[in-house]
Amino acid sequence: MEETAPFGSTAYLVTLSLLVFARGMDLLSTRIATPNLVLEANPIARRLGWTWGGLFNLLFAGLLACWPVPALVVVTTSLMVAGRNFKSAWLMRSLGEEGYQGLIVGVMAQTSLSLYLACLIGETSMVSIVGAAVMYFGRHQVALLAIGLGIVAYAAAVAFYTLLSLWRIRSKTG
Prior knowledge:
With 174 residues, this protein is mostly helical. Helices cover 83% and strands 0% of the residues.
């Protein structure tokens, strides 16, 4: 895998296609789950909204496609985020954004913080271990290294945005 992919080259177009698909799946899964972005954990994405967020993602994909390795990290992370979104989107959509948010806040009020955090650490550490293993055993193949890093980045994003949401919920409920 080359360090850079010249604009318009086959490598650039393949990388661009992967990025557009992955970022598109992240946006689509988010759109299905939270059409009004009420449940969007990323405050920047929430502020950009659908139109500006979509344009930003296209521009981002067009620029990042010149660098296949970081692009593969973003593709991996984005597809895993989209999968996570799709997993719960049916429930979010069925209950409505406010209904789902109310359900989560209500259940969180009945759950000990230590149990919640232990489960979050369990989830993210298991995923990180898989990513670290891919990085270790694929260390001589840059594509596998990038995929492993993307898995670790996904786990870090889940931990970060889950903790950010937890902080928001706890600050609202006192």
